[in-house]
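Input.
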Amino acid sequence: MADYGADRKTSSAIASMTAEIKQEMKNQEAGAKMGHNAKPGKGSKNSNLKAEAFRTMDEHKIPMEELLTRLKSDQANGMEEATANKRLEEDGFNVLTEKEGLPWYCLFLKEMTGLFSLLLWFGSFLCFIGYGLDSSDPANLYLGIVLAAVVFITGCFSYYQESKSAAIMAGFKNFVPPKCKVIRSGKNQEIPASNLVRGDVVVINMGDRIPADIRILFSDDMKVDNSSLTGEADLLERNIECTNENALETENLAFFGTLCKEGTGKGIVIKTGDQTVMGQIAYTAQSEESDDTPLNKEIKRFIKIISSVAFFLGITFFIFGIIFGYGVITNLVFAIGIIVANVPEGLLATVTVSLSLTAKRMAKKYVLVKNLEAVETLGSTSCICSDKTGTLTQNKMTVAHLWYNGELVEAPEWSKSAEDERKLPYKRTDATFAVLHRCAICCNVADFDDSIPSERLEGKTDAEKEKVIAAHKEELANTDWNHRKTVGDASESALIKFYRYMEDLKDTRTNTPIIQNEDKGFVARIPFNSQNKFAASIHKDNGKTVLFMKGAPERVWQRCTHVLSNGSSQPITDEWRKKYDEANNTLGQRGERVLGFAYTEIPQSEVPKDNVFELKPPKGKTDIPILQRPLTFCGLIALQDPPRVGVKEAVDTC
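Output.
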């Protein structure tokens, strides 16, 4: 489902982030190779990740016959078993290569040999030297033992804390399902997902995790959740058509690690393991060099200062002792004592315990701290970047304002009473408002969800099921439309809830049906994508063929030559441009998501006899011919999303 507001971070932002990742990968060492853990030595020659993989990827664009020939596979029978085994030998297992970590004893020594720890070890060593030079006073011996014990105990504590976090994080890395269904040599079989190779035909059912990057061969209302890849939890339709040049945007690809939430499908594997989109992003993340934390930088600076002061004082008093005639041994022991006295032996334990206690408190709030020093970094944070919709807000969009006939009006909920309708700032009988109504509902795929949750019917007899169904219908009848469940994008759901009070959703769509050809499986709808930032559909409206469009206001407005005012179409003048800019800017400054709406009538002579419009750009072109017709702008609808409980307090605290 589509999000149209300009303030919404859509998959285009993810695509641009991926482009940055590609550039970073390009800057990595040339020829850096990553061997597959599951099969050392195998696949290393093919696991060299190419930074230009996204740009050169063409598996989603070429004809299916060409792809099958390239991969030596068959759409119906899959690959031959012998070919698959040979390719597994060449490519290696379908697993993500993890950066080789340090063994546990090296990690343990690392905790024992930090810069602060080394300072305390050195102080302990000097104490033992001092005791060796003058054993009459055991104070140096005791102090040396205490310093060594402090370093050892705090090191053990830090190692335990970080190894425990690392073990938890390791459980989050398993994106590959243990088993998957494939077709090989014409037989359906279940194999370990790690044994998948390019060219395998895989069967995907609802709830399955996609085991590799695949091109869709068949889709029965298949929808995927790409949140593990993009962070966006919206369900995305998958079908056999290439809908975008960008591999991340097209609907005929499904990616490794994502989840099939609805429907079923079948696809051919085009990338495995480290060559997948997820694999390349994982490689980039692992290749990043970690910078010192602010706390680490401060400790290093402090140690340099305290060490310089300690040695300066020790050497100075040693020189003065020699000048005043004290013995060399006595002076040396005294100098060592001064140096050790300047070492803050309790600071390491204090810092470690404080960070550990903070990490423990954060764990109770479901925040996992991988590195203890990262706790202090949170306290140094000066800017917090957060997604808005669904994070700071409730993701429950409602219509807040309308702009049509050149006027900006509020959009309170409409009730069925005529008295209330007279008080509203808008009139549903207005000709422009009526066109805006049809455009908002027809160019919209959201619908009300009247289905009964399956768990309410499980284990019930037929008589009990009838009671549950009757109770559910009564519950729906007593539920306000604004609180009814919907299927679809939050913005589109807000539109159908707003207009449902004025006319039944099904009636609107029945009276203005979308043009389609069931025999050819054609529906006259152009879905939203982040490149165009609009959606369009073609309908029959009172015997006329009409194209409705909605999307980002600036994209829709620039295609319009006329504006609808009081039911009549008027040329767009400088005065209209000024009115539009003022309204759009006002709504944007209020933090509302603004949608623009437009329409155009299509002459009957341009309507194909079979109702199958050409809705793809010609080869070498970027625009669809039918969209080059001049449009008439209907108006703007602004949506608002109320903030979550506690967000204001959290922002004030920050």
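Confidence is low (pLDDT under 50) at residues 1-52.
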